[in-house]
Amino acid sequence: MSGQQDLGITESKEHSPGEWYAEVVRKAELADYAPMGGFIVTRPRGYGLWEEIRDHLDAQFEATGVENAYFPLFIPESYLENEKEIVEGFDPEVAWVTHGGHEELDERLAVRPTSESIIAPFLSQWVRSHRDLPLRLNQWCSVVRWEATDTKPFFRTKEFLWQEGHTAHREHDGAWEETMRRLDQYEHTYEDLLSIPVLRGQKPDHDKFPGAHTTTTLEALMPDGKSVQGATSHHLGQTFAEAFDVAYIDEDENEHLAHTTSWGLSWRALGALIMTHSDDQGLVLPPKIAPEQVVVVPIWQEDTQEEVLDYAAGVARDLDDAGVRVHLDDRDERNPGFKYNEWELKGVPLRIEIGPNEVAEDELTLVHRPDGESAVESRETVAETTREHCEEIAAKLYVAAETNLAENVRDAESRDEILGTIGQHGGYVRTPWCGNEACETEIKDQIAAEIVLVPFENNEDKHLEGVLAGEANCAICGEQAIETAYFARNY
Amino acid sequence: MSGQQDLGITESKEHSPGEWYAEVVRKAELADYAPMGGFIVTRPRGYGLWEEIRDHLDAQFEATGVENAYFPLFIPESYLENEKEIVEGFDPEVAWVTHGGHEELDERLAVRPTSESIIAPFLSQWVRSHRDLPLRLNQWCSVVRWEATDTKPFFRTKEFLWQEGHTAHREHDGAWEETMRRLDQYEHTYEDLLSIPVLRGQKPDHDKFPGAHTTTTLEALMPDGKSVQGATSHHLGQTFAEAFDVAYIDEDENEHLAHTTSWGLSWRALGALIMTHSDDQGLVLPPKIAPEQVVVVPIWQEDTQEEVLDYAAGVARDLDDAGVRVHLDDRDERNPGFKYNEWELKGVPLRIEIGPNEVAEDELTLVHRPDGESAVESRETVAETTREHCEEIAAKLYVAAETNLAENVRDAESRDEILGTIGQHGGYVRTPWCGNEACETEIKDQIAAEIVLVPFENNEDKHLEGVLAGEANCAICGEQAIETAYFARNY
Questions:
Q1: Which of B34, B102, B159 sits opposite A92 (nearest CB)?
Q2: Chain B partners of A3 at a C-beta cutoff of 8 Å?
Q3: Separation of alpha carbons B412 and A19, rounded Å
Q4: Above 0.90 for ipTM, yes or no?
Q5: DSSP H or E stretch at residue A431
Q6: Poorest-confidence range of A212-221, A362-371, A386-395, B79-88?
Q7: Mean pLDDT, all residues of chain A
Q8: Min Cα separation A115/chain B (Å)
Q9: In angstroms, what separates the C-alpha of B426 from chain A's closest C-alpha?
Q10: Above pLDDT 90, what percent of chain B?
């Protein structure tokens, strides 16, 4: 399909991360640009990654009482307006359907930018008694937000895939536990499936989901020093319950408003995955999410062809039988070097090379995609050995990302230090903050960095003790600090 | 949540099938009506059934070379117009997005009614050489068709869930094999998962998918005598390849146009499932697709409570360990009669009743949902026995539907016989036909029955020999017959 020159990555991750990212996405066949700006086509190799994320989350959701459902793609304008904060929050970003066939519609329909305002009315219908609570629903769907920015596949697209969970609870505390349980599960998916460590915290009040009591967030640090919001989980308080009358009769026979939550993770997680681990040879994937965990590449001359191919086929069969996702690349028309490059580009975590030597010695040569580390192992225990190497590769990727994160959280005590540190190093700057948006704006205007999270109170934090004791001052305005803020540039 | 009087079905399947169907859908908690006419909300019990269909088809697709992908929700108007037959076919049914945020769009975007015209341009990009073929993609998504008719959940909704497969092939024959392979897989899903027998055939030329070479179809007979189009698989010939330039370089180094197919199954399959097996007590589900395959209902008095509940919990645990989807209904506040009614309404295929007698005798009483048949079985072999009974229930459902189908395919030799037979019995009428749409229109105008399929030539068929020999005459106009047609009223 493509010549060797088309196959390889030509951009540098370090020097032109934007172009490099776009090239990896296209050449690893994850996605292509659609004809309309802001839209992409997700190809099988990209969509398969999304299916793995879906299955990983669904298993956790199902084990904790969540049921999948499906709500309409369209939301009547009047429903959005029922929740004034929602409509204010999303109005500039909504795509509107105005015509069905040749007829103009009586009421415009929003293509869902998020579904609180169509789901809450049904929670209201379905919840009658305290016995109906907690009620936990989730849907996997696409949403549309008409943001007028450049397209960056998975990071910034007008249509994106996500899951959105919506729950109702008797008490404030139950809703808070739910909010945190989902944040925990998102964190588990980032760490376990994607090998990406994250920071946890909440958004400053001025950056919460419209109408929410608290917006909690996971933030992942990209190698270029920018932060990615990895997932959010909102405690919506009683805002939506009040607007849409989600109420229940409690044991005391009185009617009470429910407390609701919503939480979502989008295909931006794929963007973070690609950006975090990949390199100038192409995509790098942790084994748990890789469509092919292992590629077996036989290396033969005419006189060794039969024995090498037989041996390689046996290895592939054993791996397949053991439940390892394996691909045997026995194409005759391509040489081993071409195959190495192709599977490196596509991110296969582990390569098994088999030549006449390996056959003679009853061995295998294993090569790790992330760093090229190789090992010679016995043929006999191939399935077990492969599992161990896959775990090692996942751990390697996690540790590298964790090291990057640890090295890039810095403290700053003054406005100039915030600006200087982010300007020089990127990453996160942790600083005492008075809670006023104006102080964030001052930083944002100068270096496009903003407060991506405020840690939860129980986090370990250098400034926190002082902040809690009322003894620290805002690094920007000098007034009394009430929180610790993490500033960063972000996607 | 609801009193006993709200729980039961009040409409009769025989006397008011439309109202009965709507009541089953709502009371079994499969779906609710959305605020906008033509849209529904799919509740967890309904969506779970759709997930089972998805998994059943995905397994077959994956085993035969299909990969899942995701294409944009919107299609630019000019793309639809590239394939004039598509735009003519769908123009009156397209929902149009005209505004993004506060801006009017330069070009209107269609909410996808089907995706041939956005997928074909990418097939064109991705196909270069004969080595890239066959190329097989599928997506699970929702589509919108603005049909101005009454809403009937799963059967007739403006937005519906489906999968759409799109493939490209070197040769006409390869595309034809693909078309038939997918029809076979759909048939397998109907028979194996849904316990519904189907008829196979093709649509008359005037009723093909816009631009298709051949549209093949599965038709299922509903108990009210109407036919449901269960799935379609289209051989698109070279129409789309030509319009969107899907071409490849063959071994002869010349460029050739590809041959494409598309095939889809929608949540209408859920409508057929509900309609076929359910009854005046509510939903009936075959065990393979049921969210709970077995409900265990313990029956106790105060003095037997502990032993009965222990015993019942043990049975449920054993079934769960054996991979059976089981629910133990040990609610204290409901009596057994209430529970029976509730689980019958919700369609659980098998009930296990456990009272003091069963405990004393080390037995179980099993009751089949479809017909109330009961059996006393040994406790010891509960998992195996349950499996056998589940198979029996699935077979029972299939046989009942098959008998209904076999009894309702009738032959007719004249226009009056067609009208009279369908008018009196419903079902299918098989008759020689000249191939002219006008003859179908005559029947349609009088009794709203149309030609739902023309059998494949290799089918057993009473008239076919005569038709092929040129010796039969069209039952309607008396001219020479060229095909056998199946007339039916349909959904």
A1: B102
A2: none
A3: 68
A4: yes
A5: strand A428-433
A6: B79-88
A7: 94
A8: 12
A9: 33
A10: 90
- Tens digits of residue pLDDT in B427-480: 999 999 999 999 999 999 999 999 999 998 744 455 566 666 677 899 999 999
CATH no., domain B294-404: 3.40.50.800
Give B80-120 pLDDT, tens digit per residue. 888 777 777 788 899 999 999 999 999 999 999 999 999 99
Substitution target from B1, B27, B47, B66 for chain A, most A beta carbons within 10 A: B47
Contacts of A39 in chain B (CB under 8 A): 72, 74
Q: How many CA atoms are closer than 13 Å to the CA of B271, on its beta-carbon side?
A: 29
CATH homologous superfamily, domain A294-395 = Anticodon-binding domain (3.40.50.800)
Closest by Cβ to A69, choosing from B44, B141, B146? B44
Q: Which CATH architecture group holds A409-489? A: 2-Layer Sandwich (3.30)
Q: Where are the domains of chain B?
A: 4-277, 294-404, 409-489
Task: Render A407-420 in DSSP notation, one character per residue.
Answer: HTEEE-SSHHHHHH
Name the minimum distance, in Å, from the CA of A159 to any CA of chain B.
7
Binary contact (B51, A41; C-beta < 8 A): no
Q: Residue A93 is nearest to which of B36, B101, B125, comparing CB atoms?
A: B101
Digit-coded pLDDT (tens) for A186-228: 999 999 999 999 999 999 999 999 899 999 999 999 999 999 9
A70: nearest CA in chain B?
B42
Which CATH number does the domain A4-277 belong to among 3.30.930.10, 2.40.33.20, 3.40.50.80, 3.40.50.300? 3.30.930.10
For residue A367, the surrounding DSSP H or E stretch is strand A363-368
Q: With an 8 Å Cβ cutoff, are B72 and A100 in contact?
A: no
The alpha-carbon gap from A81 to the nearest alpha carbon of chain B, in Å, equals 14
If you count them, how many residues does chain B have? 491
Give the span between the Cα atoms of A70 and A185, in whole angstroms.
Answer: 21
Cα–Cα distance for residue pair A354/B490, rounded to 1 Å: 60
> What's this model's pTM, rounded to 2 decimal places?
0.95
Cα–chain center distance at B52: 12
Residue A80 contacts residue A86 (beta carbons within 8 Å): yes
Alpha-helical runs (H) found in B39-83: 44-63, 77-82
The pLDDT value recorded for residue A1 is 41
Which of A79, A99, A137 faces B96 most closely, judged by CB atoms? Answer: A99
Mean pLDDT (chain B, rounded): 94
